[in-house]
Amino acid sequence: MTTRRDFIGGAMAGAAFVGCDLLNTAHVHAQGAPARRREVVVNGRRVKTVDVHAHCAFPQAMALMGMKVNPDNLVMGTDRIRAMDEQGIDIEALSINPYWYKAERDVAQAVIKMQNEKLAELCAAQPDRFVAFATIALQHPDLAVRQLEEGIKTLGLRGVSVGSNVEGRELADPAFHPVWAKAEELGCLVFIHPVRVPELDKRLAGNGDLTNIIAFPLDTSIALSHLIFEGTLDRFPGLKICASHGGGYLGSYAPRSDVVCANFPQRCTGAPLKKKPTEYLRQLYYDSIVFTPEAMRHLIAEVGVSQIVMGSDYPFPWNTAPVDHILATPGASDADRAAMLGDTAARLLGIQPG
């Protein structure tokens, strides 16, 4: 039997629970004695809560690209478990933001192999607390296809995480079609996390961290819009996609997308879409990182409550009370809240229900 001590000292020892900026931005540590695990109950039913948006990285894998993690970003496994217990999170789906999209094939292959194996080891050591998204070298699509299949079929990872662009190449680029075909075949969830929009760095410089708070949701909105308008979602109708940060800005302004092809047909030169752009939003999934109860209510109105899953963005304090955020959603039924807290994510990630 693997004990908590074995887990912390073994598989967890090589993991750094870091956030969106792997190298620079400090996170918030959990403090104090071990917390009593919060159990979330909705209408008398204990709900197994699932957080789909939590970051980690493996310094050994990053070292293959000459990168080092800022020591201030390192989080002990005990800190992570304590934070989960305090927040009422039963299971986290771990993902690693892509830093390897510039890597040549051999280096990218070594990085992905190491971190996918380490993700699998970590999850195997604590299967009641962690599952993980496989990483892939998307810049080398043929290699990415093999890495995806190995990650899911051999290592038992539950989905795949990708950046919202690949060094400026859109996810809708036909070069990536084999990857989406494999993900559709495997039935696995594709978690999209923004990276950067470097061409906007000059305008977004200054106070307020605009390269994150504006560019990240914008990058997600761009990626999803291309997947819709370039026909990728028509080509792969069974593809399961989860967009981070509530899908960016798309859910708040999507009806404008419906107008363009109807009123400006010369601007839609590709194959005709099979349905209105806004209708595609209801086949995608979104994490709950939208900050206010009204924002949650609006997102649900646009995409449907069945498409929302809980996210925390740990270890960064963007959403420090993800369970309470969902419980406070106006107009949501008990079934709705249970679905968002974990039932939907458990189904998508192959987690046994509570």
Description:
The protein is α/β, with parallel strands linked by helices. It has helices at residues 4-9, 59-63, 77-87, 105-125, 141-154, 177-186, 201-204, 210-213, 215-229, 232-235, 250-253, 255-263, 277-280, 293-303, 322-327, 334-349; strands at 41-42, 45-46, 50-55, 91-95, 130-134, 159-163, 165-166, 169-170, 189-193, 240-243, 285-287, 308-309. α14 links the parallel β11 and β12. 41% of the residues lie in helices and 12% in strands. It has 16 helices and 12 strands. The strands form 3 sheets. An 8-stranded parallel sheet has the order 3-4-5-6-9-10-11-12. Strands 1-2 form a two-stranded antiparallel sheet. The protein has a single domain, classed as Metal-dependent hydrolases (TIM Barrel), CATH 3.20.20. Mean pLDDT is 90; it is low at 1-9 and 25-31. The chain is globular, with a radius of gyration of 19 Å. α5 runs parallel beside α6 (177-186).
> Could you describe the largest sheet, including whether it forms a barrel?
8 strands, parallel
Mean pLDDT: 90
Q: Write the H/E string, N to C.
A: HEEEHHEHEHEEEHEHHHHEHHHEHEHH
User: How many separate helices?
Assistant: 16
CATH architecture term:
Alpha-Beta Barrel
Q: Supply Rg.
A: 19 Å
Shape: globular
Q: What gap, in angstroms, lies between the N and C termini? A: 22 Å
